[in-house]
Design a protein that fits this description.
The chain is of the alpha/beta class. The chain has a single domain, classed as Flavodoxin domain (Rossmann fold), CATH 3.40.50.360. The chain has six helices and seven strands, in the order βαβααβαβββαβα. A five-stranded parallel beta sheet has the order 2-1-3-6-7, sandwiched between helices. A two-stranded antiparallel sheet has the order 4-5. Strand 6, helix 5 and strand 7 form a beta-alpha-beta unit. The longest helix is centred in the middle third of the chain and has 18 residues. The protein is globular, with a radius of gyration of 18 Å. The N terminus is likely disordered. Its EC number is 1.6.5.-, 1.7.1.17. Quinone reductase that provides resistance to thiol-specific stress caused by electrophilic quinones. This is FMN dependent NADH:quinone oxidoreductase.
């Protein structure tokens, strides 16, 4: 491990229904392990499949829009869901996301997380020129695992969406590591390629 004072606070988010056996979970965890070989790393883990968040409701949004001193006990509890997730995100400088592809899109559990961390006046603000993200100086590395080959094609609905929604809250330094064709005969070769990409990405963070 690097013994310098260069500490990286890493938020690892996984959402595979297959847990530790999921390709995206395994590879994202491997990437964080590679980082720990090069830096002093403090990792916060959030498994959105193991501990799913409830879908966003009007009552919860209403709690956000109520002044803190005026909230009911229920509204305090509802607002705390989003507040705690945003605080967790703010406290980490590097975001590592294990991203499986389900039916050409992101897992619904991850969308629920996005719905909680994208809040006007807190993680972005509206200006006369449009929305401006408020979470700055953060890097996101997305380890995207897919059963087929989608990167760079119109069927990849994940990549642009993730870049757009993260930029919306101010995270514009976004990098993808793709592990594709994992349900096809070339799986082993493509996992090797993904691991090589992880090595290069980890080295570039020094």
């Amino acid at each position: 491990m690097n013994t310098s004072t260069n500490v990286k606070n890493v938020l690892l988010i996984n959402s595979s229904l297959n847990g530790e056996q999921g390709n995206s979970n395994r590879l994202a965890s491997e990437f964080v392990a590679k980082l720990s070989e090069k830096f002093e790393v403090k990792v916060t883990e959030r498994d959105l499949a193991k501990d799913p968040l409830p879908h966003l409701s009007q009552a919860e949004m209403g709690a956000w829009m109520t002044a803190a001193n005026d909230r009911t006990e229920e509204q305090v509890q509802l607002a705390d869901i989003s507040d705690s997730l945003i605080e967790e995100l703010k406290n980490n400088d590097t975001l590592v996301i294990g991203m499986p592809m389900y039916n050409f899109g992101i897992p619904s559990t991850f969308k629920v997380w996005i719905d909680r961390i994208a809040r006007a006046g807190i993680t972005f603000s509206y200006t006369e020129n449009g929305p401006v993200g408020l979470l700055e100086s953060k890097k996101a590395i997305i380890v995207a695992a897919r059963g087929g080959m989608y990167a760079g094609t119109p069927k990849d609905s994940q990549s642009q969406y993730l870049k757009d929604v993260l930029a919306f809250v101010g995270i514009t330094d976004v990098q993808f590591i793709y592990a594709e064709a994992l349900n096809m005969p070339a799986k082993d070769e493509n996992v090797i390629l993904a691991r090589q990409a992880m090595d290069v990405t980890a080295e570039a963070l020094i």
